[in-house]
Amino acid sequence: MEKNGTQNNDYIIIKAVDDGVSVIGLTRGSDTKFHHSEKLDKGEVMIAQFTEHTSAIKIRGNARILSNFGEIESEIKK
Ligand code: TRP
Description:
The strands form two sheets. This protein has a four-stranded antiparallel sheet, with no helix packed on it. Strands 3-2-5 form a three-stranded antiparallel sheet, with no helix packed on it. With 78 residues, the protein is mainly beta. The protein is 0% helix and 51% strand. The structure holds tryptophan.
């Protein structure tokens, strides 16, 4: 069990619809900062979890995101 009760076995799946999708991890705790950025090209998939270190995930670019909540699309505004 991690501290703060952040243990969570759920994954989110991000599939890039276009090149240049960024998956950005934001820190857990009193300050919320970017700690990791991953670039995905079209068709690439990232499978990620929320962890002791990661409380939020920001996705920039055109992607499909699957989670327990269902599916949503992120879009770059035109
Ligand atoms: N080392 C990070 C962590 O354990 C890796 C990570 C987990 C991550 N989930 C992420 C990075 C989501 C980017 C986005 O928290």
